[in-house]
Amino acid sequence: LSARPAVFCPFVARPNDVIPDRKALGMDPATAAAKGVYAVRRASCDATVVLQGSAVMTLFMRDVLKKLDETKTKVNVFYVASAELFDLLPESEQEALFPSNLRQHAMGITDFTLPTLWRWVRSEEGLKKSLHSFKHGAFLGSGAWEQVLVEGGMDGASQLAAILDWCQVKGK
After folding, report:
1. Shortest CA distance to 56 belongs to which of 78, 89, 86?
2. Rounded CA gap, 108 and 2, in Å?
3. pLDDT (mean) for 125-152
4. Is the pLDDT score of 36 beyond 80?
5. Is the predicted pLDDT of residue 96 greater than 80, yes or no?
6. pTM for the whole structure
7. What percentage of the chain exceeds 70 in pLDDT?
8. Are 56 and 50 in contact (CB under 8 A)?
9. How far apart are CA 125 and CA 108, in angstroms?
10. Using CB atoms within 10 A of its CB, is residue 33 exposed (0-12), middle (13-18) or buried (19+)?
11. Each residue of 8-35: pLDDT tens digit?
12. DSSP letters of the chain?
């Protein structure tokens, strides 16, 4: 807000989502979202997943993260909260938060369309493996949000399969 002062009156209707215990999960605090991008997981490897959108993040936290931990899958995971907030940071801080070399080894999972990932996923291979709402060549139907994500192949089981495949492709 210091960049563009404004009156902010938040009201967001969300389903009854379970709020994760960030500290117990080793995640950055919720205030990290103010920088636009934050790490959900950092690993000693190149394989990286970029999450964008509250629906895919909700399912990732609920259905995927624990299974990745159980299988000891090493993968960097970043959540994009706001490209605009990230843009306000100095380049050195952007690089520290989300190193450009990891973008070369990233695949994405987004509630939106593929072009929204171009900035974060910097390889053709990563873009082809990414999950997005138009991946199957048609816009998704309407209905309960979880069912729409199943239709789009972005549900928890599909996310897990795509991430495990990506880690195998990256040799990790």
Report:
1. 78
2. 30
3. 86
4. yes
5. yes
6. 0.87
7. 94
8. no
9. 11
10. middle
11. 677 666 667 778 888 888 888 889 999 9
12. --SS------------PPPP-HHHHTPPPGGGGGGSEEEEE--SSS-EEEEESHHHHHHIIIIIHHHHHHTT---EEEEES-HHHHHTS-HHHHHHHS-HHHHTTEEEEESS-GGGGTTT--SHHHHHH-B-TTTTSS----S-HHHHHHHTT-SHHHHHHHHHHHHHHTT-
Span 40-92, pLDDT tens digits: 999 999 999 999 998 999 999 999 999 999 999 999 999 999 999 999 999 99
pLDDT, residue 11, reads 65
Placement of tokens 């987004």 in the chain: 110
The residue behind tokens 């299974």 is 67
Per the structure block, which two tokens stand in for 93?
């801080």
| Residue whose C-alpha is closest to residue 60's, from 12, 5, 131 | 131
Residue type, 124: E
Task: Report CA 170 to chain centroid distance, whole Å.
Answer: 18
Q: Which domains does the chain have, with CATH numbers?
A: 22-169 (3.40.50.920)
